[in-house]
Write a structure and sequence with these properties.
Blueprint (H helix, E strand, L loop, with lengths): L8 H8 L10 E6 L6 H13 L10 E2 L2 E2 L5 E6 L6 E8 L11 H8 L34 E7 L7 H16 L4 E6 L1 H4 L1 H5 L8 H7 L1 H8 L6 E3 L11 H27 L1
Parallel strand pairs: 1-5, 1-6, 6-7, 7-8
Antiparallel strand pairs: 2-3, 4-5
Helix pairs in contact: 2-9, 3-4, 7-8
Length: about 270
């Protein structure tokens, strides 16, 4: 990893060179996880890095412990010229909460491409087949090609009651053959050494053993090499190369997984 830490420019250029033969085909990344763990902030951070300026299209935060994200939304990221986009999109959904939050069935339907943009999540009921926001005949492009679990490093140990829900979602994705990975956010809040220098993240035994990587891997069954520690832009007003490097490494893996899934689907 040593060479990567110098600058994210090389990896950013690799991502900028990714293209799709079909303008209507893209890699769809579906983010899920507990409320307030950084799903929307992760989207904003990627948007900021890829567009080269601070953005905030995905409303982030919580209101009294309740998910700020209420609506199913697809985020496209502008690429250079107006009207052109990167060949990958991200979907943000309502988070899991202690006694409410997103219904697991809605996540399954989103993975299968049955949920249209604009659908308002309801913790008390799932999307019905006769709802105008139900997509009866989803195309390959409508379906999720990568499922990403987003969890805060500073809160992993507090999630025992929600892990059951998240494991159910993982099993559904596995049954559908969808590749999966995890993002461990807020690593700076979990470890003082990482807060002082993000380059310490892969050296930190605290992050690896006591806080997030091992615990998240054991709890959800996600391999360690599919869990990426990151820090989202939060209070920063200037670019941070180390922060961006961690985000871009995670993004590159998402795209790789998504491309493999789409190619396999086309071959069957």
């Amino acid at each position: 990893m040593g060479g990567y830490w110098s600058s994210p420019c090389k990896l950013l250029k690799t991502l900028q060179n990714i293209s799709s033969k079909n303008k209507d085909q893209h890699i769809r990344v579906l983010l899920y996880g507990p409320t307030g763990h950084g799903k929307s902030s992760f989207i904003n951070t990627m948007d900021t890095i890829l567009r080269g300026r601070m953005t905030g299209r995905a409303l982030a935060g919580t209101i009294g412990g309740t998910s700020f994200t209420q609506q199913y939304t697809t985020y496209k990221i502008t690429k250079g010229e107006h009207g052109t986009f990167y060949p990958f999109v991200f979907n943000d959904i309502m988070g899991f909460e202690k006694d409410k939050g997103v219904c697991e069935e809605d996540i399954k339907r989103a993975m299968m491409g049955h949920v249209k943009d604009g659908y308002m999540f309801n913790p008390l009921s799932t999307l019905s087949t006769d709802d105008p926001y139900y997509n009866t005949n989803p195309s390959l492009s409508d379906k999720a090609h990568v499922l990403v679990c987003v969890v805060s490093a500073s809160k992993v140990r507090l999630l025992s009651r929600l892990m059951t829900n998240m494991r159910k979602v993982r099993r559904e994705a596995s049954d559908l053959g969808i590749p999966q990975m995890a993002i461990l956010t807020k690593i700076d809040e979990a470890c003082p050494k990482v807060n002082a220098d993000l380059r310490n993240v892969y050296k930190s035994k605290f992050v690896k053993k006591q806080v997030g990587l091992n615990l998240l891997s054991e709890s959800l069954g996600i391999p360690l090499n599919c869990i990426f520690p990151v820090k989202n832009y939060h209070s920063e007003i200037t670019p941070n190369d180390d922060l961006e490097m961690l985000i871009l490494m995670a993004l590159r893996q998402m795209i790789n997984f998504g491309e493999d899934f789409v190619n396999d689907c086309k071959c069957t």
